[in-house]
Amino acid sequence: MTAASSRLPPALNIITLATFAASLSARALDPVLPHVADDFGISIAAAAGFASVFAFTFAIIQPVLGAAADLFGKARLMIVCLVLLGIANILGAMANSFWLLFASRILAGIGSGGVFPVALSLTSDLVGPEKRQLAIGRTLMGSMTGNLLGASVSGLIGDFLGWRGVLAVLGILVIVASVAVAAGFRGAALTRAPKTNFSALRDGYRTIFSNPNAFCYAAVFVEGCCVLGLFPFIASFLFQGGETRLSVAGVVIAGFAVGGLFYTLTISRFLPRLGVNGMMIAGATLVASQLVVATFGPGAIAQGLSLLLMGWGFYMIHGCLQVFASELSVEARATALSLHSFFFFMGQTLGPIAYGFGILHAGKAPTLLTAAFIMVALGFVCARLLRQTRPADARPG
User: Fold this and answer.
1) Are residues 218 and 176 in the same domain?
2) Does residue 2 surpass a pLDDT of 50?
3) Domain containing 95: what range?
4) How far apart are CA 42 and CA 52, in angstroms?
5) Into how many domains does the chain fold?
């Protein structure tokens, strides 16, 4: 660990715990969807709607939750949303119909949506711009570890307790984590949020969107489309190559999150050498190169390694964009970062539709090569347009 990272505020450990707990639920149902489909007598495609409604709710609620965090306090909102997420999982475990489970996933999307973006905002409040990307990397590690374990451990729990057991166990874990986070925040040295009211909130939106760096919202939308939009098709690509085991597809896709962990472990070395612009260009180019690799239909091992590199590159540019979003406004920082998540998850929502249309009408290779070109262009455009500047509402001194 570097000296810089060792001087990061201890409260970051509590924030990382919160993002870890919230991320456990994001992909928890994916490995057990066949059991869910069997229990309710629905198709796998219909059961996959649980993941879609979770992501869409996460996105659409962001402007509301960001404003709520700025109005009522970031730490308080995170704790409330963790409790809501835990209760939603437990209610889902007790659901006796498709629509009750569907409603519980909407609640879970709201709960999860109120943790990660607000955690980034609180992280940004705790550290200055010079250490912000390192601190956000720490927060990301909690989220990515939760995503990894949530999918893998839920499959193991599902073998013994079924899908209801998965949701019940995760619900209890999240509620326990919310108690630990609340206790940790009580003793932590947190920056007191500035006084905010609805008038100030309106001014915050004006400050955010009058900043030229608000282009980062368009950038994360494109990221969501070009990178995360590919994921629903990876299993089918492996099927085309003769690998039909869904467990293998899950491990391959997990390579992306492992790449994200590599990013958090290496950012302190690469950022001083490459700078922010170099990180964005290098990251986007690395993502593009792996999209090109995917056009050749690599086997499972090669595809897993490719996704590891793609995840590494993705977080190199995505981490920079998160920092730019955190610096759009001081008074409305939670709102700024919630908007960042809104655009990112809307990109994830529309990306699979764009990929599906492209693959159906133009073919796999032209679609993936187009996405690769867009990512390279995005890296260079971001490096040219985004500049590290003080927010217009920053206090002097």
Assistant:
1) no
2) no
3) 1-189
4) 16
5) 2
Q: Which of 122, 156, 189 is the last residue of a domain?
A: 189
Give residue 394's pLDDT: 62
Residue range 32-65, pLDDT digits in tens: 767 787 888 887 667 766 777 887 888 888 778 7
CA distance 122 to 69: 10
Q: What is the C-alpha separation between 284 and 266, in angstroms, rounded? A: 17
pLDDT digits (tens, 9 = 90+) for 59-69: 888 778 777 77
Is residue 323 located within the same domain as residue 221?
A: yes
Residue 318 lies in a domain: yes
Provide the whole-model pTM: 0.73
Is residue 397 assigned to a domain? yes
Query: CA separation (Å) from 320 to 23, 103, 141, 278, 357?
Result: 21, 35, 15, 10, 30
The string of pLDDT tens digits covering residues 217-255 is 999 999 999 998 887 777 778 878 887 665 666 677 778
DSSP notation for 257-317 = HHHHHHHHHHHHHHHHHHHHHHHHHHHHHHHHHHHHHHTT---HHHHHHHHHHHHHHHHHH
**What 8-state DSSP symbol labels residue 30?**
G
Distance, CA of 136 to chain centre: 12
Do both 259 and 378 map to the same domain?
Answer: yes
How many Cα atoms are found within 13 Å in the side-chain-facing hemisphere of 30? 26
